[in-house]
């Protein structure tokens, strides 16, 4: 599998028989939406990402990322 989509990676694990919580898939979907617009200067129609994202969205993304990291740590046995 190639790519950067967390959702697809988790779905691939699910397809391989691993149990993946639907809430974790939702967290991955939220994070996937941040990838292009926050990484590339032309990811938004105009302006910088700091003009479009709120503190609340950033905090939510951090909670989603922590959820994904906890899953990965458990999956890897750490």
Describe this structure in words.
The structure is a single chain. With 78 residues, the chain is mainly alpha-helical. It has a single domain (6-75), classed as Up-down Bundle (Four Helix Bundle (Hemerythrin (Met), subunit A)), CATH 1.20.120.330. It is built from three helices and no strands. The chain is elongated and about 45 Å long. The mean pLDDT is 92.
Attribute tags:
single chain, 78 residues, mainly alpha
Summed up, the helix count is: 3
> How many extended strands?
0
Structural class: mainly alpha
By CATH reckoning, the class would read: Mainly Alpha
The name of the CATH topology is Four Helix Bundle (Hemerythrin (Met), subunit A)
CATH architecture: Up-down Bundle
CATH superfamily: Nucleotidyltransferases  domain 2
Structural domain count: 1
Q: Compute the gyration radius: what is it?
A: 14 Å
Q: Estimate percent helicity.
A: 55-70%
On the 0 to 100 scale, the average pLDDT is 92
Give a quick account of the main beta sheet: strands, pairing sense, barrel closure. none
- Characterize the overall form: elongated
- How many angstroms does the end-to-end distance come to? 23 Å
Uncertain segments are: none
Strand fraction band? under 5%
The ordered H/E elements are HHH
């Amino acid at each position: 599998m190639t790519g950067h989509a967390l959702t697809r990676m988790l779905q691939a694990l699910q397809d391989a028989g691993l149990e993946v919580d639907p809430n974790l898939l939702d967290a991955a979907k939220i994070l996937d939406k941040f990838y292009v617009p926050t990484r590339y200067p032309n990811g938004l129609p105009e302006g910088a990402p700091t003009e479009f994202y709120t503190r609340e969205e950033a905090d939510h993304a951090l909670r989603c990322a922590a959820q994904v990291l906890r899953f990965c740590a458990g999956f890897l046995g750490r």
